[in-house]
Amino acid sequence: MRLAKTFTEISNAERRAAEYTVKSYSPMGKITGLGAVEVSALEYIIPSQEFAFHGIRFDITSGGDYPQTSVAIVAISDAEDLLASLEDLASTTIKKDRFSLTEIELKIENLRIVLFNNDRDRLAFLVEASGIGSHFARQNILVDLHKLVKLAIDHLRTSAPDLI
Prior knowledge:
Blueprint: E1 2-3, H1 7-11, E2 22-33, E3 35-46, E4 51-62, E5 69-75, H2 79-91, E6 103-108, E7 111-117, E8 123-129, E9 132-136, H3 141-159
Parallel strand pairs: 1-4
Antiparallel strand pairs: 2-3, 3-4, 4-5, 6-7, 7-8, 8-9
């Protein structure tokens, strides 16, 4: 079976009429702030083409009276880089020597995570996709996000070790 490197690759795969895709998800958990981010392991397979995609899905819901949702998908091949970056962001400190406000942006595919300081000398972060974001008031919640991503990676590696 061939493994797709990006979600776009499987989405754009040429298909015959009535050819189907098997889409499977396993939710790993959710972090909640001003909005929420649910992390899932996912697998897409086009059986007739022996074509598969494995990745991590982020369902992002904004906060407020009229919440909106968006989805970001990160390929399993980028997951280790995402884990390392989340570890870095979780332990980062921002000094106000030169500038009073600073943002540190991580972008993988259509997932964007921004760590920033506020005027109360606290670090917070945003998880965003397609212009829809969820804000978290404490940097240490990044550790929880890291755990959920790690769970999704472990799930994919144990459920399909020959494909990943």
